[in-house]
Every structure is written in structure tokens, then in C-alpha cells.
Design brief:
With 374 residues, the protein is an alpha/beta fold. It has 15 helices and ten strands. The protein folds into two domains: 4-268, Rossmann fold (3-Layer(aba) Sandwich), CATH 3.40.50; 278-357, no CATH class.
Length: 374
């Protein structure tokens, strides 16, 4: 299997003038925002640093491994900083916000890919409990704090960056890119040439019907692995492309499992039954709950996790014995109504899964609901 790292062998020595910007370049830049650039890339969008120097500073400093979401992210930065294609691209405007009170997790960085041509990269969900709670909040709150922050970031960045803009992100980051491009002012939207969403959730159609979504829809490029779970949440009214991953199930969310040939992601004609199973099960499960019940359920589940002193899932896993005891004790002491809702919701999800287990066939052109495929 060939993946994104093989792309550096094929295109890494070619400048953008020799071989133009493409979907794999956008994937690379979308993933760069996952790196912890604290004290390396300035929050000032006008204070730029090349990818080459970014790499030099990053690898010469003590890296906090707990902030690295995926091991290959480090290899990606190394390849970029040593590649003729990327080394002179400039980073600026790095922000990283985790606010437990606001239930907000947001990070982004602006990348000058060439003169008067910028890529705004939005980070997806990190490994913080707050980040995952905000994802759950997507089912009862719109817009999310991160969506509003993504729009504000675009508006502020556009005042200081002159020229064309490309927005992109992986996972929640892709959703933020689409949201910001849909709800920004029209003069900003006219400067946006492309929007890249890599396995990011869609939107409830009613939520975006009064936005500029339809004005930007032809510029949105959405890519979903064949067994996508995260990316199939909600609706994709834009066309999407199904791509091939060498992994299975949830692990297909990992971009390093996506197959690449030349300057293209390898495509497939249909989703798998796994994706359809989770999609139908989740939709059926959610249909049994009111918006208020969804909020109550999410708040209850994450209140259990927050009783631990650990702030990330890595920390929770490392201390799983102690944390299991804390969560169990907290669940026993929880008010009867919340405890009952959590138990009944879990049992109901299992029931919905059982109902859909034998009924789902691979998604094809005839049974995709309202979603579209390019």
C-alpha cells in the first residue's frame, strides 16, 4: 500500500510551479494543524516562520509526547520541513484553545503556500475530554463554540492576509472549514477558492439553509473513507468522494491509512456496510431522544469523566484502574433521573444496533438517502 509518505517521494522535490496544488497537498496541510506549535509558531498572523525553520525548532526542543495525537504526525512535519515542495511555506497565526467552562476545543494555523495564496488549517478533535464533549454537543447545539471560533478566526485572518484563501481540515476540522466558509461575509467568501473536508461530519440541512452554503458548495471537496463513521454523521449536501483505506472501521479515520497514487487519493465506487450500519444505527438512536434528552445524556456521561483529575483520554487510560473506581462511584452517587437516562440510552443504542445489524447493505447510488457522491 502507498500512502501520504510515498507522496513525498513522488512530489516532494517539485515546487508548486512545477506541479500545482492538489488534494494530497491539502490533506498534508490540513493535518499539520494537529501539531503542538506552542512557542514555535506565533499567534500573530503577520509574524511568519517557514516550515523548514518550524521543523528545526520543533525537533530541537523537548517534545511533550502527550500532545502528539498520532505518532505519524511527527514524521509528517519532518517530511514537510525537509521537502522542497513545502519547506518555504510559512506558518503564522497559531492558536490552541481548550476551555472546559465553555466546552470549547479549537486550534488553527494559517499557512502561506505561495505569494498571496493562503491555506487556513483547522485542527479536528484532539485527545482532551473537552474536545470529545464538544463533539457530542453537536447533536444538541448549533453552532458549537468551535464553529463560532472558526468563523471569527477566518474573519480576523482575512483582514491581514491579502489574496486567495483555501480552507481545510480533517475530522471536526473539516466541518469547521465548511462552517466558516458558509457563514462568513460574502466579500471573504469570494476570496475562497477551495474548501477541503477530510472525513468531517456534515450538517443538519436546516442549520445551514440560511447561510452562504449554496454559494460555496461547488468549491467544497469532501473525502470519506469507505467505512467512514465520523464523516457520515449528519448530511452532506455537497458531493463527496469515497477513498480507499487499508484499515477497518474506526481506524479508517486515520489519514495515514488512506491510499495515495501520484497526486491523487485512491477512490472507490461505494461505502461499505460498516459505514451504513453505524449511520443507520446512530440516526435511529437519536430519533428516540429529544434535543433536551441528548443534552442531558451528554452532560451526564462527561460529568462522570470529569470527576477524574485527568484532562486527556491518554491520561485516563494510563490511570484506568483509579479512574474506573472514580467513575463507578460517581455513577452510583448520580441523581436517579440522570443515571436512569444513561442506562436506558445505552440499552436503546444496543437495541438499535441489533435492529440494523442484518438489514444494512453497502451504500450504492440507489440507497444513499440525500447524500451525494462525486
Amino acid at each position: 500500500m502507498t500512502n501520504i509518505f510515498d507522496y513525498f517521494n513522488w512530489r516532494g522535490d517539485l515546487s508548486l510551479k512545477q506541479d500545482g496544488f492538489n488534494e494530497v497537498d491539502a490533506l498534508v496541510l490540513s493535518r499539520l494543524s494537529y501539531l503542538p506549535f506552542d512557542n514555535i509558531v506565533s499567534a500573530d498572523i503577520k509574524e511568519k516562520i517557514s516550515l523548514r525553520k518550524t521543523g528545526d525548532k520543533f525537533f530541537s526542543s523537548d517534545i511533550d509526547k502527550t500532545k502528539i495525537l498520532w505518532r505519524d504526525d511527527i514524521n509528517l512535519l519532518k517530511c514537510c520541513s525537509e521537502s522542497k515542495r513545502y519547506e518555504d511555506m510559512k506558518l503564522s497565526g497559531y492558536v490552541n484553545i481548550v476551555d472546559e467552562k465553555k466546552q470549547l476545543q479549537f486550534s488553527a494555523v494559517a499557512i502561506e503556500i505561495s505569494k498571496n495564496h493562503y491555506f487556513i488549517s483547522y485542527r479536528g478533535t484532539d485527545n482532551t475530554v473537552v474536545g470529545w464533549q464538544e463533539d457530542f454537543n453537536m447533536y444538541h447545539t448549533f453552532p458549537l463554540p468551535s464553529q463560532k471560533t472558526a468563523l471569527k478566526y477566518l474573519e480576523e485572518a482575512s483582514k491581514k492576509l491579502y489574496g486567495n484563501l483555501i480552507l481545510g481540515g480533517h475530522s471536526k476540522g473539516g466541518n469547521l472549514a465548511v462552517y466558516a466558509s458558509s457563514f462568513c461575509k460574502n466579500d471573504i467568501r469570494k476570496r475562497i477558492t477551495d474548501v477541503y473536508n477530510y472525513d468531517g461530519p456534515g450538517f443538519d440541512s436546516k442549520s445551514i439553509e440560511n447561510s452562504g452554503f449554496n454559494l460555496i458548495i461547488d468549491k467544497i471537496h469532501t473525502y470519506l473513507p469507505q467505512s467512514s463513521i465520523f464523516g457520515m454523521m449528519f448530511e452532506h449536501d455537497e458531493n463527496y468522494t469515497i477513498i480507499k483505506s487499508c484499515q477497518k472501521g474506526f481506524l479508517q479515520h486515520d489519514i495515514y491509512s488512506w491510499e495515495v497514487v501520484g497526486n491523487k487519493l485512491v477512490t472507490l465506487s461505494e461505502m461499505t456496510s460498516t459505514s451504513a450500519f453505524f449511520d443507520h444505527t446512530l440516526n435511529e438512536f437519536l430519533s428516540t431522544m429529544s434535543i433536551e434528552q441528548r443534552k442531558h445524556f451528554a452532560d451526564g456521561v462527561f460529568s462522570l469523566l470529569k470527576n477524574s483529575d485527568d484532562k486527556t483520554f491518554n491520561e485516563i487510560a494510563d490511570n484506568w484502574r483509579a479512574n474506573s473506581a472514580v467513575v463507578f462511584k460517581s455513577f452510583k452517587n448520580m441523581d436517579k433521573e440522570t443515571r436512569s437516562l444513561i442506562l436506558s440510552s445505552v440499552l436503546n443504542f444496543v437495541k438499535c444496533a441489533k435492529n440494523n445489524f442484518s438489514d444494512i447493505n453497502p451504500l450504492s447510488k440507489g440507497n444513499k438517502k440525500s447524500r451525494k457522491k462525486s
